[in-house]
Specification:
Distance between the termini: 63 Å
Radius of gyration: 22 Å
Strand content: 15-25%
Number of domains: 3
CATH architecture of the largest domain: 3-Layer(aba) Sandwich
CATH class of the largest domain: Alpha Beta
CATH superfamily of the largest domain: P-loop containing nucleotide triphosphate hydrolases
Largest sheet: 6 strands, mixed
CATH topology of the largest domain: Rossmann fold
Number of strands: 13
Helix content: 25-40%
């Protein structure tokens, strides 16, 4: 029997069949031996072990269209990343790292900024200028007042979307609006540290009934909030490729291998000074570049010498 993993907790996987039945399953030992782990969104084959108790085993994981490590989900069409405009202030560095990860997986991203009802127009414009102008779809929401939800629903319809973001930004509240049956617990924001309590402990796939029609279902995968994220398979040589707004100006740099950090006559740095490239995005780029350089300083020193020959 085939089904789709809708939730995974402590070694148990909950598989929904085409008939809407949910079986509690274990993964066969062969997956552990081969280093493969089932994740939410996987299409799987299961064998029924106890029909009455709705229990079974996962015997095969069908080929994935795509998969992410963080959040660990499979077979998604797009990512919806949710941050707050204020309270808590957005962590731009964390957002950029998420965008790099999604670009590595060729996954479209919708950036949603919540709490529009308590933000200023200037705060919105800063975010818009930083991200919409470099090619990302940006939406401003007030989940509390249901602003912007109609536009978001249009973008979700007929697709499987993974919902991600840090704690305290209204992720569970948004899911409650989209999937009233989810009955998600909403956390209170910590006044002392202005960081939300992480109320989502596992990833879970939900059918958005309001936006679904037979043969064109809409799903959303809720994932645990995160406060840190490491970029993988990115080096100081390649990190600039994840900042598409640099591309227009790079031919004007004096050095062919310009890192846009300390070289003279750098057209990207000039574009930042002229406010053609977002200062926020550029500062994030520099911070990520420095972190990557700490991992391989000898190679980068040699590279910089070659670029000046």
């Amino acid at each position: 029997m085939r089904g789709r993993i809708v939730k995974g907790i402590a070694g148990f996987y909950y598989v929904e069949t085409p008939l809407g039945e949910i079986y509690e399953c274990r993964a066969k030992g062969i997956f552990r031996k081969s280093g493969i782990k089932p994740i939410v969104g996987d299409d799987v084959e299961i064998e029924i072990t106890h029909e009455t108790d709705m229990e079974g085993n996962i015997t095969d994981i069908l080929p994935r269209r795509n998969s992410l490590i963080r959040p660990p989900v499979a077979n998604v069409d797009q990512a919806v990343i949710l941050f707050a405009i204020v309270k808590p202030d957005p962590n731009y560095n964390l957002l950029d790292k998420f965008l790099i990860t999604m670009r590595q997986n060729n996954l479209p991203v919708i950036i949603c900024f919540n709490k529009q009802d308590i933000a200023t127009r200037q705060e919105e414009e800063e975010l818009y200028n930083a991200y919409e102008k470099c090619g990302y779809h940006v939406l401003f929401l007030s989940v509390k007042e249901e602003r912007g939800l109609d536009e978001l629903k249009k973008l979700l319809r007929g697709k499987t979307s993974t919902l991600a973001g840090p704690s305290g930004v209204g992720k569970s509240s948004l899911l409650n609006k989209l999937v009233p049956d989810a009955c998600m617990q909403t956390g209170e924001l910590s006044r002392k540290i202005e960081r939300g309590r992480n109320t989502t402990r596992h990833s879970e796939l939900f059918l958005v009934k309001e936006l679904s029609t037979p043969g064109s279902e809409t799903y959303i995968i809720d994932t645990p909030g995160f406060t840190s994220l490491d970029v993988r398979d990115v080096t100081t040589d390649t990190v600039m490729n994840y900042y598409p707004e640099f591309t227009e100006y790079e031919p004007g740099c004096r050095f062919a291998l310009c890192s846009h950090i300390s070289e003279p006559d750098c057209a990207v740095k000039k574009a930042v000074e002229e406010e053609k490239v977002s200062r926020v995005r550029y500062d994030n780029y520099c911070a990520i570049y420095r972190d990557l350089k700490m991992l391989r300083p000898d190679y980068d020193n040699l590279r910089n010498k070659r670029s000046r020959k």
